[in-house]
Design a protein that fits this description.
- The complex is a heterodimer of chains A (882) and B (115).
- Chain A has 882 residues and is of the alpha+beta class.
- Helices cover 52% and strands 15% of the residues of chain A.
- Chain A contains 25 helices and 25 strands.
- In chain A, strands 1, 2, 3, 4, 5, 6, 7, 8, 9, 10, 11, 12 and 13 form a 13-stranded mixed β-sheet that branches.
- Residues 468-474 of chain A have low confidence and may be disordered.
- Chain B has four helices and five strands, in the order βαβαβαββα.
- In chain B, strands 2-5-4 form a three-stranded antiparallel β-sheet.
- The longest helix of chain B has 27 residues, at 87-113.
- Chain B is globular, with a radius of gyration of 16 Å.
- The model of chain B is unreliable at 1-5 (pLDDT under 50).
- Classes of the chains: A alpha+beta (882), B alpha+beta (115).
- At the A-B interface, helix 1 and helix 3 of A face helix 2, helix 3 and strand 5 of B.
Chain lengths: 882, 115
């Protein structure tokens, strides 16, 4: 123990100990010399004899030092000092290496931070790994009666909760606002382990008693709309025209749900309401907590068994129910692209390492003499090795420090570029995880780029290094081979990244040039909500919508205006089953289905969504006229293949006991994008809004709004204010929300692809530059080392062209080999890119060819500059270089 | 093999500390050179010892508190660091001696058993 402290203290007492040691060795030598003199040797001879008898003084010192302290600690400090001196002595090398590393390490840290925040970190709920969802096909909602049956019959979960989307109008508090909320069962918030910031959560009795009209606010809403009023508890607020009592406020970091209705700011109880028998109206999302000791697999088995039993009992109601970990719902869409990005950025880091390894190798070759001297003075191979590794580590740490700055900057860009739907985007920061990752990466890189030069340095031959005078013409074969390997791997990695980037570019171009079906330019849209206002009931609503459209059309600069329930790409997406007149009734669960939209006259004209045949809905298609519907091309192809659907009749009242309201197909429209840009549009129907009872206010809470679409002759943004004014001139109490410029909606729908494009292109370019720098460095280095050989060749009659060819072949063969390996790698890896790509195959030959050309040109440029220089060598001066 | 001239042998690893302690115990304070000379003498020059290699043992023993060094003058009026054994050193010597005896007996027994 005592010895441990003394040894650990040693580095700080070194100077004293060194002096003491010198004194002792000298005394020892003096005594030895005395002895030899007594034996009759002359003083000079005696001194030499004493030295011989003593052994190596320097080695003895080294031994002493090693026992005195912890040699490693001592050496580390010394190596660090020495390393610093070395790096300072060679600022160009240091700056280039540190910058290269900073780019590689910084980019990796930034991407890691994104992945950590979005993918890796657990969701912010208690025991979040055991939270699952039960949804149709893993995404779709569930009907009341099914939920209640599951709740009573399933035992894998200790809690099964349900939530339904609810977006009320907040009125009486100015300005009126359309809010996003959730109706949740009483057990949901406790299941998440959530505690309110103020007040309380819902208590059991309230589940069946919506009449209580209690509401819990998010901290943000409380702050935004009620100025953090401390007396908010017990206060009554008006939602959809009804009074609700505030019973609680959730803390700022509480967000639920983490996917789907992510803008939720308030919660009310009782999503099942007064309709517990309903098996057809799918609107509940089911959240459950796995019972302790029950695995996901067991739960899935039980859910499969229970739903199969219910399906037999109530056909068509319990199919394709999937149990999914909640986190999977959150990250499902972005997991693959993000992991791919991490892979790409790791490649960049590898290239970075290869580059710095080059530089270190070149430098260690130049330091052969230094190493030889150090070995002669008693440095063991291990010591030389650790000395070099310490320098690498130092470089890597400097690179990480600079990389941290790069990461901060990159994250800022990423967060700005990232699509809004990227989950948990607001939590992306450089935190302890990221710093740990950064340190780990710098250690790893130090090993990667430092090991080979260090091993090589340690293996250097002492006498060779001293004799050669630090200049060998061709270098060792092994070292050259390793350098070639580095260049080749850089090109292999760069090729894969360039192919990745190329595929992204091609895919993005395909996406951009894809036709949405409508013309988004110069279109602005906004949602006007009537819930809880005097226009809400059936009578006034139709009139109000007509007036609304009229007053907007009257605004200057308006070319056309229309209304729809849900805007494509930005709005909700409702699917609805229907029956076709004259066909036998399909089995339950196999009914024809289509995306369900309600439009006013003028919608198709405003969106410039072409009608391929038939006619548009007209002002005369109202409640007194026979029902009409327009279908899209896809619906016509799927349900009336080879036939003309116009004149055919369908109904959406599909219940066996329902009285069908038949709608006649009057037109076929082109296919328009539905809820996302990438998927092909499915069957879709457009009903005449002005003859639809729900839209006109028949006791349906979900259809209490209209989405206005307005085409302008000029800048659509300039129309926002006048349009709002026109709405409020009809009723000041109407909330306007979702004001969107259609071009922006289209751009946002490819935001993830744009982000991927940006990242892959950036990585690809970075990889190219680094590979070029690597190839350039290696060739110029080998040219510099071979100046004498080149001089001899020239004086022996080699022409410049021959020399150039020789040097180019040398450099290009490595690039070529690397490219071939990269090609194979890209063929294998790009298969996993399939889901990221649109309109281009992962093996797209054009892209591969293009990447090969780009890499070839890069290699040629990088190699030919130093090669050219070499051929201009003056033979005489080259031979004199020594 | 045994008929050839006696070969110089290196110090058995781990025994140097014991040897140094014993030397200081029986001879009183000694400088490094004195210790080395004594070893040479006792071993009848069979022990091959670079005198520089004594230092690690001395440092180790001093750090363990088994010996103490102080500067003094030799009979020839040379300056030298004299090491003497401490109380803790004597105790360690006793234990180590017992251990060494036990070990060498054991090895001896094993070896004589073999024939």
């Amino acid at each position: 123990m005592r010895r441990f402290f003394l040894r650990a203290l040693n580095p700080f007492t070194t100077q004293k100990a060194e002096r003491e040691l010198m004194r002792e060795i000298e005394a020892h030598l003096a005594l030895l010399q005395d002895d030899f003199e007594r034996k009759g040797l002359a003083p000079g001879e005696a001194r030499l004899a004493a030295r011989r008898a003593y052994g190596g003084v320097e080695q003895a010192k080294e031994l002493h030092r090693e026992t005195r302290g912890f040699p490693w600690l001592d050496h580390l400090l010394k190596d660090l000092r020495f390393g610093f001196r070395n790096l300072r002595k060679n600022p160009t090398f240091t700056i280039v290496a540190v910058l290269t590393l900073a780019l590689g390490i910084g980019a990796n840290t930034a991407i890691f931070s994104v992945l950590d925040a979005v993918l890796f970190r657990p969701l912010p709920y208690a025991d979040s790994n055991r939270l699952v969802t039960l949804l149709n096909y893993g995404t779709g909602p569930i009907a009341n009666a099914n939920y209640l049956d599951w709740r009573d019959q399933m035992h894998s979960f200790d809690s099964i909760a349900a939530a339904s989307y609810w977006s009320p109008n907040l009125t009486r508090d100015d300005p009126p606002e359309h809010l996003y909320g959730l109706q949740v069962t009483q057990n949901l918030l406790p299941m998440l382990g959530s505690k309110p910031l103020l007040g309380r959560l819902f208590v059991p009795r309230e589940d069946r008693l919506a009449a209580n009209h209690e509401v819990i606010l998010s901290q943000r809403l409380w702050q935004r709309r009620f100025r953090s009023d401390p007396a908010i508890l017990g206060r009554t607020i008006t939602l959809d025209g009804e009074a609700y009592t505030v019973i609680g406020v959730m803390p700022a970091d509480f967000k639920f749900p983490p996917f789907w209705a992510t803008r939720t700011e308030l919660w009310i109880p009782d999503p099942v309401g007064a309709d517990p028998q309903n098996r057809g109206g799918n609107h509940l999302r089911i959240f459950a907590h796995l019972r302790k000791g029950v695995s996901l697999r067991q739960a899935r088995a039980e859910v499969a068994a229970v739903t199969a039993r219910l399906e037999r009992q109530y056909p068509g109601t319990n199919r394709n129910v999937e149990v999914t970990p909640l986190k999977q719902n959150v990250i499902g869409n972005v997991e693959t692209p993000l992991l791919f990005t991490l892979g790409a950025v790791a490649f960049v880091l590898l290239i970075t390492c290869a580059n710095v390894a080059h530089m270190m190798l070149a430098r260690s070759a130049d330091r052969e003499r230094e190493i030889a001297v150090r070995s002669a003075l008693g440095a063991s191979r291990g010591r030389v090795l650790t000395q070099f590794l310490t320098e690498s580590l130092l470089l890597a740490l400097l690179g990480s420090a600079a990389g941290l700055a790069v990461a901060f900057w990159l994250i800022k860009i990423l967060v700005r570029l990232a699509p809004a739907f990227l989950p948990r985007i607001e939590t992306i920061t450089i935190d302890a995880h990221a710093i740990l990752f950064l340190l780990g990466v710098s250690l790893l890189t130090a090993l990667l780029f430092g090991l080979a030069p260090a091993v090589q340095a340690a293996a250097a031959n002492i006498s060779g290094g001293l004799k050669e005078g630090g200049r060998s013409e061709t270098g060792s074969v092994r070292r050259n081979r390793f350098r070639s390997f580095l260049v080749a791997s850089e090109f292999a990695l760069a090729f894969m990244l360039v192919v990745g980037a190329g595929l992204m570019v091609r895919s993005f171009i395909a996406l951009q040039s894809d036709n949405p079906g409508f013309n988004p330019h110069n279109v602005v849209s906004m949602v006007v909500s009537v819930a809880g206002t005097k226009e809400s009931p059936t009578g006034p609503r139709a009139l109000f919508y007509d007036q609304l459209l009229e007053s907007v059309r009257a605004l200057p600069g308006v070319v056309a205006a229309g209304g729809i329930n849900h805007l494509p790409l930005a709005g909700d997406l409702w699917g609805w089953d229907f029956l076709i007149k004259g066909r036998p009734r399909p089995r339950p669960g196999e009914l024809p289905n289509a995306v369900y939209r309600l439009v006013t006259p003028g919608y198709f004209k405003t969106m410039r969504l072409p009608l391929l045949s038939g006619r548009d809905v007209a002002q005369s298609d109202d409640t007194r006229a026979p029902g009409v519907v327009i279908i899209n091309q896809r619906a016509a192809d799927v349900y009336w293949p080879g036939a003309n659907p116009i004149g055919q009749r369908i109904t959406f009242n599909t219940g066996p006991n329902e009285k069908p309201v038949w709608l006649t197909i009057i037109g076929i429209s082109a296919d328009a994008k539905q809820d996302d840009w990438v998927s092909k549009p499915g069957p879709e129907v457009y009903l005449a809004a002005r003859q639809n009872a729900d839209f006109l206010g028949a006791a349906a809470t979900h259809s209490s709004y209209i989405t206005l679409v307005v085409r302008t002759s000029g800048d659509p943004a300039a129309l926002i204010a006048p349009a709002k004014k026109a709405v409020w001139s009809l009723d000041r109490n109407l909330p306007i929300s979702e004001v969107l410029i259609m071009d922006r909606v289209v751009a946002d729908s490819t935001a993830l692809q744009r982000l991927e494009l940006f990242l892959f292109t950036a990585f690809g370019v970075l990889a190219l530059v680094l590979a070029a720098v690597g190839a350039y460095g290696v060739i110029s280095y080998s040219v510099a080392r071979r100046v004498r050989e080149i001089g001899i060749r020239i004086s022996l009659g080699a022409t410049r062209a021959e020399l150039l060819r020789m040097l180019l072949a040398d450099g290009l063969s490595n690039a070529l080999r690397g490219t071939v390996v990269g090609l194979l790698g890209a063929l294998v890896l790009s298969r996993f890119m399939g889901t990221l790509l649109f309109g281009v195959k992962p093996t797209d030959p054009m892209t591969y060819f293009g990447a090969a050309v780009v890499l070839g040109i890069t290699a040629l440029l990088a190699v030919s500059i130093p090669a050219h220089k070499a051929t201009r060598v003056e033979p005489m001066s080259a031979l004199r270089t020594e | 093999m045994a008929s050839e001239a006696p070969e110089r042998m290196p110090v058995l690893p781990g025994t140097l500390d014991l040897i140094v302690l014993r030397t200081l115990y029986s001879m009183g304070p000694q400088h490094a050179y004195g210790i080395a000379a004594r070893l040479q003498q006792v071993s009848e020059d069979l022990l091959q010892l670079n005198q520089g290699t004594l230092y690690p043992a001395l440092v180790r023993l001093e750090q363990q508190g088994h010996i103490k060094g102080s500067w003094n003058r030799t009979e020839n009026n040379r300056e030298a660091k004299f090491y003497s054994i401490t109380k803790a050193g004597e105790k360690a010597l006793k234990e180590e001696t017992v251990r060494w005896r036990r070990m060498s007996n054991l090895v001896e027994n094993l070896l004589s058993d073999e024939v």
